[in-house]
Amino acid sequence: MSKIITRRDILKFTGGGILGVMLSPLPWKLLDDSAIWTQNWSLTPQLPRGPITTAFSHCTLCNGGCAIKAQCVSGMPYFVSGVQNHPATHGTICPRGLASHHMAHHPLRIVHPHTFVGKSGESRMVALSLNEALDEIAKQMSEAKGSIAILDQQPGRAISELYEEFLSKIKNGVYLSSPSNENATIVALQEMMDRKSESSGYDFENTKLILSFGAPLLDGWGTPGRMTAIKNRKSAKFIQIDSRYSRTAMQADQWIALKPGTERILALSIAYVLINENLVTKQIQSSAIDFGQFKNIVKNFNPEKTVTVTDIQSHEVRKIAEELVTSESAIVLSGADSGGGPFDTETEKAIASLNLLIGNIGKQGGIVARKEIPGYASPTQPMQWSNIPDHSISVLIVDDADSGYALPWSLIEKKLTTEKSFVVSLSPVLNEISAHSDLLVPAPAHFESLRDVPNTTGSATATFALSTPLLKKQDGTTEPTEMLKEVAQRLNISLEIPAFKEILMQKVRAIHSQKRGTVFSYTDQSSTNVSDISSSDDLWIKLTEGAIWIDGTSKQFHPVKLTFALSTNSIRQNVDQGLQLIAYGWKGATSFAQVSPIMSKVFQESELRDVNGTVTINPKTAHQFGLSKDELATLSTKNGSLEVRARISTSVRPGIIEASIGPLPNGIETPAHPAGTNILNLCEVTGDGTWRVTTANLLKV
Amino acid sequence: MDKKLIPRGLQRTSFTKFLLWVLPWTALLAFGTYAIYLCLAEGLFHTNMDNRFAFGIWIFLDLTVIALGAGAFFTGFLLYILKRKELKAVINSAVVIGLICYTGAMLVLMVDVGQPLRALFTFWHPNTHSILTEVTFCLTCYLIVLIIEYVPIVLKNRQLRQIPKFLVFEFQLHKLMPVIAGIGTFLSFFHQGSLGGLFGVLRGRPFAFREELGIWPSTFFLFVISAAAAGPSFIMLTTWLVEKITKKRLVKPSVYKFLGKVSGIMLIAYVLLKSIDTFIWINSTSPGNGFPAFEFYATRSFGTWILFTEIVTLGLLPALVLLSSRLRENRKLLFGAGFMVCCGIMLNRFVMTIQTLALPTLPFDEFLTYMPSWEEVATFLFVIAYGVLLYSFTFRYSTLFPQERELEYMPDEQSSKEFANSAGERSWWQPRFVTNFINRIASSKL
Amino acid sequence: METTTENKSLKKYKYGMVIDLDKCNGCGVCSIACAVENNVPPAQAKANKRNGISLLNMHTVSNNEQFPKNESAFIPIFCQQCEQETPCMTVCPQNAVDIDPTTGIVGQVPQRCLGCRYCMTACPYHARYFNWWDPEWTEGMKQQLNPDVAPRMRGVVEKCNFCHGRLHAAKQKAAANGSREIDTADYIPACVESCPNKAITFGDLNDEPTEAAQLSKNKDTFRFLSRLGTEPKVYYHSEKKWVHEMAEKSLTRSLQEEIHG
User: Fold this and answer.
1) Chain C: nearest CA to A476, how far in angstroms?
2) Does position C184 have pLDDT exceeding 70, yes or no?
């Protein structure tokens, strides 16, 4: 007992103890378990398992109608990409399309009709039954004092025809579309040529020169793959006339940086050169009813005089005019930036008229008339926003389709009756419009139901495809056709609406019976003439499995009778004191529509694209207003003020504030928190239904 | 109340007063625990670190604390290996401080890594090429050494001493001390150096990258020497602080002066080597990687003033003060210089971590700034509170300063006299001409 | 003996990329394709460009000329797959970073990563990302994860690995067909596949006739920070003089910008 502990004992005890514990399984088991636990912890999701398959469909997030290939696990798409060798997309899709399969699982997805309870700003969403919702719509429509409008941002689809039919059967029916239209130049030309029922497109594939007034041609315009293919083929020269260094201006062969809001003046000064130097074809001169008047107006726009307004030197104007004429073929088109708002009608006409002056109408490499799609009625143009009287719409139904272009709530609000207006949103995902709606009747989400994809924007050929569902339709969602049918029934309107699938099968039967065109199948990359397909059922199967019907034959025509119908010859631009605010966006990701949460990679987790609330100014402007990089500033216009983050770049014209109206930073507005930070709300919407330039002020916070 | 636990012959404040002292630190400890909980349970998004600033205040302060805690190994080395007996007066305190610094740093590191439970992988799948592996191995081993060194201090407690086995154990352990100190010195040498090497090896960070000497970058050696300089100064400062707080005299003035001198000698060596290293870096290493060194100092916040402050103001200046036996006489100068040494080492660790990360490498990248979040600060306050508490308890219930009993009965004047008498002492490693030279500089009126 | 001969007969690849900056219009397809392919979670509400995870990160550079003479370019930055003294690999204390000798691809083993972030400080390209948050998807999106790529847990580092999931799938396919070599058409990273402008060329840099190998030797092709000597395998191509000048600059300009705001 009285044994003395020696140094040796200590060492023996310690060493033996350590060795003993180490040799026992205890520490190793514990270490192993804790490490395995960190590798499998429940906060990291389990991967889906199952057979890997490939499915084809078409993206309907905008009117580009891109073909997509979806890799699926257990039938659930997990990677969406373009279809190789596709005649229109050339195998590419846009970022939004790449993440399009997420839209059905968006955090703001709703699957049941909802209404709002409580005051605005603090209202709550309350679910209600479909019947209650439909009753409410019918009631509101029957009680409506003003007009009843349907806003369809992808006109020309099968559902669009039904909307138009429905509206034609009620009094005060108004068919509306997005204020920004990628086909605006064609619409203006059809007006001038009195060929409104024609279906035309741009023959970009065969043209040598594309003169674009601000159209975001290389940043998602039309079918994005088509435009990039043309750019990469280098078959046409791109001249971009743009007040800002847009993505298209950056990629174009030439960028003409004009002052904002002076597009009409530049277009007419080009016309001045064309007329003055006798470059206008005799044929146009003779077929234009008001050529004399046009000449008279254009007389004012001597490039030597307009330079102070547009900031474009006269020799540059002359050079453009000469290029337009000397080029084998050329297309002049206008277009709004996705967030910047459309041009006013006078500007549209001025730009469109250049096409007439250079005589590219109906010609290869110009603006061509395409064949109609069998089974579709000839298109009618939606009502222009500027033609709708203010405060005249009592009931507005907003279809779930998106144009990709911005639509300020203030513009809609301006047209709604001041009291008792009723807005219904069909969007499956809460968005800016839902935040202002009275009733939400969500349609099935993207890829959840069968849709038709007729002629895509600006296409020179007639095409038809189907967007086959890739996902299971969620219970509680309502097909817009169903909604329309039920409401018509409640209003005692005789409107025959078969099941939507049947409607589309009718179209396919019509295509088959006309035996026109070819079908390009995605599965085997083969083209088949429609005449070689034995039955319309076979054609239907081909189309649902992934195929596009194309009729490439275009109709030749000459403008016979045309009116320029320009009304203003003013070369002054209304300039107020202060800075000029110009908004910009990115197709499909303006504040109107929602994007997949994964788009945070380009908006939030990098500075590739700008979120709402970011403004960019020239260093000179910054110096003048005492602002430094990334500083907070208050942006104010007549419509109010907002706190914004100021970025500084030499790519911006001094005196200009470029403001992004992309998705709202760090989150998305919900009905409970309607847009407050949205720069789009600061833009001044004019009587023309546009918001291109707004006088603004910037103050350091 | 706890009288029976207090060492015989020592005056300690009343239990109530002690409780009042402990209370706020415990509150701070609780606050820090909450911050640590947030970081561990919810994730490191609670910090303000990001993908560019992957290291933040934690790594910076860890490096600082480990450098300051170097007093434990260096004092041990001087006492047990070089037999500088005067250091017996502070060795216990040095060991406690070392233990606090190292355990604190380890704790913060465990919060800092994203998957602390996988820390053991370093021992399972070690990458022998990684200098961080070296750090982990040495730190872990040295922590064990520190615990072994701490045990006898705990066993000095009056109640524990009554158990004969403990007494014998302590005695035997004491005999082992030189071996343990030797191992400790060896381990410390490597991990202090490896911590410096962490940054010196960063080929991708030309601001931190240094030439290799043998298998280690020069920062390896600079860190060892600077830590050896800071350690004694920090012991000097902490002891002085404990004297101020407890209103007691704990060590003889000669001990302070000796610590100051050791610090001064190590510091002057460090300043010399650091200057050579900086010179080589500016003229060869950095431009060799395509980065003219002056460009690193182009920003307002991190201008060349930082380099000057680091080497001259907080390096050369205190070194000269500490080397002069005459200036060491002045308590204010002595402790002031000691404080500057610690600040200088802190600044060096700041430059190596924070400045390195703030500077961009890609031509289009930006200079970044970083501010720690409250969770980061609170986590570090936890370490400080923990340190104060551990030190307070050890001080109260054990004998940290062997000279305390003796000094308890020495009048103040005698102490001051002694402070004066011990002037002019010259250690065996300090050449006479250096002392004379420095003394002359110190006495000449500039 | 036999195994060694077998190893020798295995083809040694040196996968690399050449990015044509003149073709890139910064559309962002590659970033999104990368995130979808590699199961990178969407950003948390508080995430930003400094702490978010975008394995393929786009930077914007400018020639700094005044409007309208200004020009911009986009530079996609992701792991540059350093061949020599791979900075991240040498520093990792527990071998969570490895370089595959048969492909030259620098890999990251998230299941072994401690999350010390030392590799992030070591990377000169800032191309490594830390999971500051737990990954989070909506319930439905969890069903849409790529079954070939394991999602990373909170607290570990991740980076581009040239779509390892795709290489793995290609290898499996080759093995099923009884071949040891993969069909090059089967292994194309998501960003390369999806780039609408065909700005990214991917391939075996050892294989002279491939487009990637040819382009990498083009006189207008360069690498960022090649002077550090880490031999990255991601090349950039531009015919614009200012882009080359920008790429060769060290810190001066960005720092001056900072000063003059």
Assistant:
1) 17
2) yes
Alpha carbon distance B205, B379 (integer Å): 28
User: In whole angstroms, how far apart are CA B350 and each of B63, B111, B311, B341, B375?
Assistant: 9, 20, 13, 14, 19
B115 vs chain A: nearest CA distance in angstroms? 7
Cβ–Cβ < 8 Å for A301, A571: yes
Total residue count of chain C as it appears in this document: 261
Q: Which residue in the block uniquely carries the two structure tokens 């480990």?
A: B66
Pick the more confident residue, A629 or A3: A629
- Residues B305-319 have pLDDT tens digits of 999 999 999 999 999
Q: Is residue C165 part of a domain?
A: yes
| Cβ(B261)–Cβ(B427) below 8 Å | yes
**Which residue, among A542, A467, A553, A547, has the nearest Cα to A516 in the 3D structure?**
A553
Instruction: Give the integer Cα–Cα distance in Å for C137 and A596.
Output: 11
Q: Would you say residue C11 has pLDDT above 50? A: yes
Size of interface A-B (CB pairs under 8 A): 24
pLDDT, one tens digit per residue, over A172-191 is 899 999 988 898 999 999 88
From the CA of B169, how many Å to the nearest CA of chain A?
A: 7
Residue C67 lies in a domain: yes
Q: For the residues B429-437, what does the mean pLDDT come to?
A: 53
Q: How far apart are CA C261 and CA C250, in angstroms?
A: 19
Number of other residues whose CB lies within 10 A of the CB of residue B53: 24
Predicted ipTM? 0.92
Instruction: Judge: A37–B117 Cβ closer than 8 Å, yes or no.
Output: yes
Between β-strands A237-241 and A254-256, what pairing exists: parallel, antiparallel or unpaired? parallel
CB contact under 8 A, C121 and B126: no
CA distance C166 to chain A (A): 12
How close A564 gets to chain C, by Cα (Å)? 33
The domain locations on chain B are: 22-443
Residue of C nearest to B47 (CA): C132
Decide if A535 touches C, using CB distance below 8 A: no
**Which of C46, C109, C137, C194 would you mutate first to test chain A, the one with the most A CBs within 10 A?**
C194
Q: Which amino acid is at A406?
A: A
The amino acid that residue A235 corresponds to is S
Residue C236, strand partner residues: C19, C222
Residue B63 has pLDDT above 50, yes or no: yes
Cα dist. A660→A407, A436, A698 in Å?
14, 21, 15
- Give the residue from chain A lying closest to B172, CA to CA: A7
Q: Which domain holds residue C250?
A: 13-260
Asked if the B22-443 domain carries CATH number 1.20.1630.10, the reply is yes
Name which of C32, C67, C257 is nearest A95 (Cβ-Cβ).
C32
Q: Which of B106, B115, B299, B300 is the best substitution to test chain C (most C C-beta atoms within 10 A)? A: B115
Name residues 256-315 of chain A within 8 A of C (Cβ). 257
What is the number of structural domains in chain C?
Answer: 1
Instruction: Report whether pLDDT(C257) > 50.
Output: no
Strand duo C221-222 + C15-20: pairing = unpaired
Sort A681 into a burial class: Cβ within 10 Å, 0-12 / 13-18 / 19+: buried
Strands A76-82 and A67-73: antiparallel
Contact A79 C146 (CB under 8 A): yes
Residue C165 sits in a domain of what CATH number? Answer: 3.30.70.20
Asked if A461 contacts A206 with a C-beta cutoff of 8 angstroms, the reply is no
C1 part of a folded domain? no
Give which of B434, B403, B382, B417 is closest to B104, Cα–Cα. B382
User: Are the CB atoms for C238 and C74 separated by under 8 Å?
Assistant: no
Q: With contact defined as beta carbons under 8 Å apart, do C38 and C163 qualify?
A: yes
Is residue A236 within 8 Å of residue A323, measured between CB atoms?
A: no
Say if residue B126 is preceded by a cis peptide, omega within 30 of 0: no
A-interface mutation test, from C36, C74, C137, C139, most A Cβ less than 10 A away: C36
